Amino acid sequence: MTGAAGFMGSHAVDRLLDAGHEVVAADSLVGGYRRNVNDSVRFEVCDLADRTAAANLIEAVHPEIIFHYAADATEGRSQFTPLSAMDNNIAAYLNTLVPAIDLGLKKMVLVSSMSVYGAQEPPFDESMPRLPEDVYGAMKASMETATEHLAQVHGFDFAIFRPHNVYGERQNMADPYRNVVAIFINNVLRQRSFYIYGDGQQMRAFSYIGDITPTIVDGGLSEKSNGMVFNVGSDEPHTIEELAEMVRRAFFGDQDWPEGTAPTYVPDRPLEVKNAYCSHERAVEVLGFSNLMTLQDGVDRMVRWAKEFGPQEPAYLSEQLEVGHDRAPVTWRERLI
Ligand SMILES: NC(=O)c1ccc[n+]([C@@H]2O[C@H](COP(=O)([O-])OP(=O)(O)OC[C@H]3O[C@@H](n4cnc5c(N)ncnc54)[C@H](O)[C@@H]3O)[C@@H](O)[C@H]2O)c1
C-alpha cells in the first residue's frame, strides 16, 4: 500500500487489516502523517520518487498486489509545481510498478482521478477519452495508459479507480492548496473567513471516504475488476456555495456566519474545470458500489472530527512555487488561507 500515511490510503490500510490481509504500508511523509497509519501495520518510510529506494523496498517486500495511492494530489497547484507532479505521480508510480513486475506482481490497483476527463461534458463515464486539462490530470492519464500497456506486454492484472472530491475524517486540513471541504472547515475552526474562487457556482459531487474505500479495496481485490476502469464517488453534485452553506449549518445551525467569518470571493483559479462529476453505473453494476452518505451528513461528521482534532496552521511550501509565482492564485501568493 503506497501513500499509506495519507488521507485515503490510511483508511484503505485499515480495511485491508480488518479483512486479515498482510499489509506493508509505505509513504514518504511528504504529504501524509505517521499518526494516520494503523499501529499494527508494518510501515516503511520510502520516497518512491527515488528509483533506488523504491526498488529496494519492492525487492524487500515482493508484493502480490499493490494498491498505489501515493501522489502529489494538489491538482490546482500542479500548474505551478509540475516537477513535483512528475516526481511524485508518474515517476514514483513507475519506480514502484516496474521492479514489482519481474518479482511476481499479480495485480496493480491504481488510484487515479476524475481529472483525466478534463473539461468534457459531465457526467463523465468511463467510455470517454482521457483529455486532461491540467498537469496533475496529465500525469494520472499517463499512469493509466502506462499500466494498460505494461499489463498487456508483461501479463499482470490491474484495476484503475477514479475517485473525485473525497472528504472525511483524517483529511489533511493543513494543506492550503487542495481539499476545499477541509479548507472551509479549518478556517471556520480558526475563526476566519474562507475564500471562494470565482462565483462559487462550480459543481462538484463530494464523496465521503467511508462510501468509497470499501469499493476501491474490496473491488480492487476482486477478480471482477481485472482490466477495468471505474469511477467511484458521490452522485450528488453541489455548487461550492452550497457546500459553504452546509459547513455553516454544521457549525452554527440556523444562525448566520459569526462576524468576519462569512466567505470571501476571489478571482477564478487558472485552468479550474467548472463542472465536474461522474456516472458510477459501472462500479454499481460490477462491484455493487453504493453511496450512503448525504453531503450534509458527511460534512456534519467531518466537522465533529475536526473539532476534536483542532484547528491546523496552513502548511505552505517552504520555497516558492516552481514556476510563475506571480500568476498563482492570490490566496497562495499572499498566504491568505
Ligand atoms: N482526495 C481526493 O479528493 C482525491 C480525488 C481523486 C483522486 N485522489 C487520489 O487518491 C490518492 C490519495 O489521495 P489523498 O487525498 O489521500 O492524498 P494525500 O496527500 O493525503 O495522500 C497521498 C500520500 O502519498 C504520499 N506520497 C506522495 N509522494 C510520495 C512519494 N514520492 N513516495 C511515497 N509516498 C508519497 C504522501 O506523503 C501522502 O501521504 C492520490 O493518488 C490522489 O491522486 C484523491
Task: Describe the protein.
The protein has 337 residues and is of the alpha/beta class. It has helices spanning 7-18, 51-61, 82-101, 135-154, 180-189, 209-221, 240-252, 281-287, 295-309, 330-333, and strands spanning 24-27, 42-45, 65-68, 107-111, 157-163, 166-167, 195-197, 203-204, 207-208, 228-232, 238-239, 264-266, 275-276. The chain has two domains: 7-167 and 206-232, Rossmann fold (3-Layer(aba) Sandwich); 180-203 and 237-275 and 294-333, Alpha-Beta Complex (UDP-galactose 4-epimerase, domain 1). The protein contains ten helices and 13 strands. The strands form five sheets. It has a four-stranded parallel beta sheet with strand order 3-4-5-10, sandwiched between helices. It has a three-stranded mixed beta sheet with strand order 11-8-13. Strands 1-2 form a two-stranded parallel sheet. Helix 5 (180-189) packs parallel to helix 7 (240-252).
List keywords for this structure.
binds nicotinamide-adenine-dinucleotide, 13 strands, 337 residues, 3-stranded mixed sheet, alpha/beta, Rossmann fold, 2 domains
Task: Summarize the topology.
Blueprint: H1 7-18, E1 24-27, E2 42-45, H2 51-61, E3 65-68, H3 82-101, E4 107-111, H4 135-154, E5 157-163, E6 166-167, H5 180-189, E7 195-197, E8 203-204, E9 207-208, H6 209-221, E10 228-232, E11 238-239, H7 240-252, E12 264-266, E13 275-276, H8 281-287, H9 295-309, H10 330-333
Parallel strand pairs: 1-2, 3-4, 4-5, 5-10, 6-9, 7-12, 8-13
Antiparallel strand pairs: 8-11
Helix pairs in contact: 1-6, 2-3, 3-4, 5-7, 5-9, 7-9
